[in-house]
Design goal:
Blueprint lengths: L31 H9 L12 H20 L37 H4 L16 E3 L5 E3 H96 L8 E4 L16 E4 L5 E3 L4 E8 L5 E6 L5 E10 L6 E2 L4 E5 L9 E7 L5 E2 L1 H7 L5
Antiparallel strand pairs: 1-2, 3-4, 4-11, 5-10, 6-7, 6-9, 7-8, 8-10, 8-11, 11-12
């Protein structure tokens, strides 16, 4: 049966922080009922499981790691000394074995209640945490942890810098590729523009060359046609005299002429030199004509009149038809002259005088 006996007024404080026995020779032996009563009344006494020095060391190790990381940081762990964290050791207490406690010993195993030997205990459990390497070297845990954290921070920093460099390299490569693409497009556009300009220039040059060639060909053809026409005319026209010297030209001015200028073309030659009909014509007149002396007028089919003046003799008569190159008279010095010569004039069908030299050239004749 459970007992409702009240708990002793001065219970044993397992951690030395509360009231102890009333007198050195007083001993409190809790029972199952007294413990139950203490639990029901909210008593503050409890039996705790002893913690081994290994557990303390593990706790200190964890606290040391957190302290090292928090104090130094990942990036500056190597620059700051390790932070030492220490807790006061508990005073040596003469604690009863947990197995001797009523109602508690049955709950504990032998392994859990086995006292920790002095050899296994850490002589300085809360002031330093160490571990032994494979070679037997002991290293301060906080220092190792701080060093590892610094290495991790440096590795992280190196990785971040590497990623930044890679991103910058990628950005630079992208910019370079874009610039190269833009330059290539610009070069291609310029090449196309130059090609188009070259094609346009070539087309214009070709068109100009073709036009010039065409014009030249047309000019050559026209010249050839004119030459052929003149050749045909020359075959049907003739100079009035074969051997001569031109002594006066058309419209030449001078006091020797009553009009003040010369109205024809003068061929100087010895008296008696034969005169030929320039083209097939009809003799319109033949006889004396005042200052012109003896004169023969030939009328061509188109009405053009050719005058031969200052003749010494005439071999044709009015109304006679003559052919090209036929002799119609001879050179003389009759009329108003200063020497033997043929004075030749050309008049249109309307009676206007024209340049005999130009007219002869138009018929393919050269003076």
């Amino acid at each position: 049966m459970a007992s409702n006996t009240p708990a002793p007024e001065a219970p044993f404080d397992a951690f030395g922080g509360g009231a102890g026995p009333a007198a050195p020779d007083t001993e409190w032996n809790p029972t199952e009922d007294s413990l139950r009563a203490q639990n029901r009344s909210g008593g503050r006494h409890r039996v705790v499981k002893q913690r081994s020095n290994f557990a303390r060391s593990s706790t200190v190790l964890g606290v040391g790691v957190i302290a090292a990381v928090g104090a130094g940081g990942l990036a500056t762990a190597q620059e700051k000394p390790p932070v030492a964290i220490s807790l006061p050791d508990l005073p040596d207490l003469d604690l009863p074995d947990a197995h001797d406690l009523p109602g508690v010993g049955a709950l504990l195993t032998d392994e859990e209640s086995e006292p920790v030997s002095a050899a296994r205990a850490n002589p300085n459990p809360l002031t330093a945490a160490t571990y032994t390497t494979a070679s037997g070297e002991q290293t301060d845990t906080a220092t190792r942890t701080a060093t590892g954290a610094a290495d991790a921070g440096e590795a992280l920093r190196a990785r971040i810098l590497q990623q930044a460099e890679q991103q910058q390299a990628s950005a630079d490569a992208a910019d370079k590729a874009a610039a190269e693409k833009l330059a290539a497009e610009k070069a291609a556009a310029e090449a196309l523009a130059k090609e188009a300009a070259a094609e346009k220039t070539a087309a214009e040059a070709k068109a100009k060359a073709e036009a010039e060639a065409k014009a030249k060909a047309e000019a050559e053809a026209a010249a050839k046609a004119e030459a052929e026409r003149l050749a045909q005319l020359a075959a049907s026209y003739s100079l009035p005299i074969s051997s001569y010297t031109l002594t006066a030209t058309y419209m030449q001015s001078g006091s020797m002429w009553s009009s003040g200028y010369h109205t024809g073309l003068d061929f100087a030659a010895p008296t008696g030199t034969p005169l030929k009909a320039v083209h097939g014509a009809t003799v319109k007149s033949a006889g004396w004509s005042g200052s012109y002396g003896y004169r023969i007028v030939l009328e061509l089919e188109d009405g053009t009149e050719v005058w031969y003046c200052h003749l010494s003799s005439m071999t044709v008569s009015v109304g006679q038809t003559v052919g090209t190159g036929e002799t119609i008279g001879r050179v003389g010095a009759t009329g108003n002259v200063t020497g033997a010569h043929l004075h030749m004039e050309v008049h249109t069908a309307g009676g206007d005088g024209i340049d005999p030299a130009a007219w002869l050239r138009s018929k393919g004749l050269s003076l």
